[in-house]
Amino acid sequence: MNGADTAWVLVCAGLVLFMTPGLALFYGGMVPVRNVLTMMMQNIIPLGIISLTWVLVGYTLAFSNKGNSVVGDFDAFALLELDTPQFHSVAAGVTIPTLAFVAYQMMFAVITPALLTGATAGRLRFGGWVVFLAAFSILVYPQVARWLWHPKGWLFQLGAQDWAGGMVVHASAGAATVAVLLVVGRRRGWPNLRTSPNNLPLMLVGGGILWFGWFGFNAGDGLQANGIAAQALINTHVAGAAAMLTWLLVERIGNGRCTLVGAVSGAVAGLATITPCAGYVGTGAALLIGLIAGCLCAVAVRLKHVLRYDDALDVIAVHFVGGVLGSFLLGFFADSSVNPVSDDGIFSGGGGVLLWHQTVAIVSVVLFSFVLSWIVAVIISRTIGLKEAGPDQEDQDRVQQGASAYSLSGISARPATAGRAASEGAEDARRGRSSRLVSAVVNTDRVDGLRDALLMAGARSLEMSDAAAYTGTVRTEAFRSEKRRIDFEDRLRVQAAVDEEHEEAVVAVLKRFGAEPDSIYRLSVIPY
So where does this one cross the membrane (predicted)? Predict the structure, then answer.
């Protein structure tokens, strides 16, 4: 056993695991405010489901030393009898514990189907998604992993190369995405639907975690702490950085602005594209691959408007196109002087043989994942259901979670301070005495302390709710390739019941908290 290699693989397993909650934050920040928890739950649940299916049957189907070139045997069922695995892309004589390899590969299996949730945002039922995860992790992923990552796999023996999952992870997940989209269809109101991301800083945090975790994703896949691992790490970073810049350039030319969403999306596209190449190419090639990836993936975002498929967060453009593109470009840039186990690509004098092998592998993986994923999705859709009902799509957190991701500045999260007129107000209400209703719109950034100030000023009862106030000033917001013209601003609607004695004090509090005089209304009311 090599202690340095073992330590490196265990660290990389943790890095790849960290990518799954990173993906939850990345997607969660880009969905509407009422679907945040549901999106995050869809990304986190694979850690539970697939970890178990991988231990029970996934690993043995993918990496059993028995079995054939298509599917493994059940000799390692539930990890009861583990032989030393036959590693891919590793020099002879280098060994790590079998369980370290099992754990590392488990994290790849976990994150693969989670990628597709960005495309289906707002549509999946939780129960149907759980069943799909289990089926995909048994019927699809282990077989693809065996074909490309086991020395007995038929695509491996053919000569196809996939360093860290351009086909095993991104192409298979992308093909599954297309299949599931065909089954669940479009969101209610699409393409006229104009949803806004709820928290782009949260998206940036998730994107940063993904970039950080990708070093384990790519640099750990050689299962050795050596020069090739260092090359894979620098290739990963350079490609992500280059793709970020070309994506922003395409945005600037097309929309006139460089956006945060574009920067993070470009980086992720570059990271996905370099994944199949990371341990097989030099730094210069990684730079070129990243530049190509950022440009083509940014352009691919527009395909959903041309082909009219509802990919909410552009999983197809970023992960599917990126994974397929990187696997294809490897046929041009692969260099055996960087890694002796690699064949040479066209630019290294190897001719078109590797490019042909890559093409066969891409087509095989995409067709296999698409067909099986479509069959599974159809069966689930016609039995327990895979798509959320139309009216529930806009508020999945309430339907599926019974909770909200955000509270209104803590207003409902703490007990109210009793106001000086609270007890009197209750008695007046019982006796049917008339009251005044004061209504106003205030800025949401002045909410702290408003409730207590109104109660102390004499408000008998309060209602607060989100409001969109018309301003007459039109501003343009861009999210990926979509532009939104907005002339409303977020505000807080406040309604306070008060007697005549305390009415002016309540109005003064509302003005102090930013209420415009034109938004303040006073009505006489008689409670029942």
Answer: 6-31, 43-62, 90-114, 126-144, 164-185, 197-216, 228-250, 257-274, 280-301, 313-334, 354-380
d(CA 121, CA 192): 16
Kindly tell me if the per-residue pLDDT of 143 is higher than 90.
yes
What is the structure's pLDDT at 414? 44
β-sheet bridge partners, residue 465: 493
DSSP 349: T
- Can you tell me which residue has the tokens 């190369």? 161
Is residue 89 within 8 A of residue 163, CB to CB? The reply is yes
**Cα separations (Å) of 183 from 118, 140, 155, 370?**
15, 18, 29, 12
Among the ranges given (120-129, 359-368, 439-448, 515-524), the one the predictor scored with the smallest mean pLDDT: 439-448
CA dist., res. 276 & res. 89, Å (int) = 12
Helix, coil or strand: residue 121: coil
Q: Given the structure tokens 């005549």, which residue do they identify? A: 500
Q: In the chain, what is the greatest distance between 2 CA atoms, to the nearest angstrom?
A: 95
Residues 158-214 have pLDDT tens digits of: 999 999 999 999 999 999 999 999 999 998 888 877 678 899 999 999 999 999 999
Closest CA to 64 of 152, 148, 169, 178: 152
**Residue 528 confidence class, pLDDT cut points 50, 70, 90:** low
322/393 Cα distance (integer angstroms): 29
Tell me, what DSSP letter sits at residue 412?
G
101-135 pLDDT tens trace: 999 999 999 999 999 999 999 999 999 999 999 99
Task: Report DSSP letters for 371-386, one per residue.
Answer: HHHHHHHHHHHHTT-S
